[in-house]
Amino acid sequence: RTSQGAAAMANDVTTTAYDDVTRPSLVEPVMIAARAEQPGLWALSREFNLIGKPTAAAKIPKEVSWWGSADDDGAGVDAELNGTEGTDVSNTASTTSSVTLTAGEYAVAMEVTDNVEEDSISGLDLFTNIRNRMVFAISLAMEDDFLALLASLSNSVGSSGVDLSIANMLSAQTGPRRRGTRGDAQAFILDSQQADDLDSAITAGNAAAAVYALSADRALGYAPTGDHGMGMRHIANFRTWPVWVTGMTDTANAAADVVGACICPSTPVNDLTGATTFGMVWKRLPRIETDRIVLGRSLQIVASARAGFGELQDGSGSAIITDA
Q: Which residues, including other chains, have CB under 8 Å from residue 174's CB and lie 6 or more apart?
């Protein structure tokens, strides 16, 4: 029986023997998304629309204070506006300035052969996936240009080579108020390393934020979000303002440091009071176009957009520059 069993096993029908009618694998009608940064922080900018207008640049007038500056102990008006009976009032000089937002172009193209469409499995909308990812990539490029503006803020907190601290966060948040900003919202944008530093600072030792919830609420207004940033990268609120984290911020000081910021995002009130820190201009909204390449038996897909970013109100933002 043993020898008969061995002989029978030698003649088993296997997938190797029947390789013409069996499959080593089967492609499922799904596409697992690649990991990536999540764009969208550029939407914190105030938007201006140049679509259909004969220019690629928007010039935005700015008021210039003739009554001194904020936090100057009243030096600009302590005697300058005093009148004297019987004496003519002198004219006060008043000027304006402006900022210019210029739209650049973003574009990506792919050519997909007919064979790919004809031979791909049913149930997987290949072209929709390609188009969606093209727009996603353009949004990432816009995000990078927006985040590069953080380093241009003239007011900064933090020290080169030193981790982000709670004191840095507080200074970044209160600075715009001391500089005369009046608005209804602020937002933190932190580099991934800065977000880790903030977690460490909050939970270090017997920090009140880690041990005494009420004390933390009163002093720092710190509250982690439900998903801890796993979705849209909103990891927490600090002093009630949202803390966003991204891995796309610029470095500084020969890459020794990273740059985050506390800014005033675009809201109806911030826009009205001039508090909004950054602006953007649209010249062409993201669009998808296709072109049939007959000789190549393929379809060319092109995604493009025209937009640009710039600083509107320097004093309403604080750069946060800390150890990378």
A: none
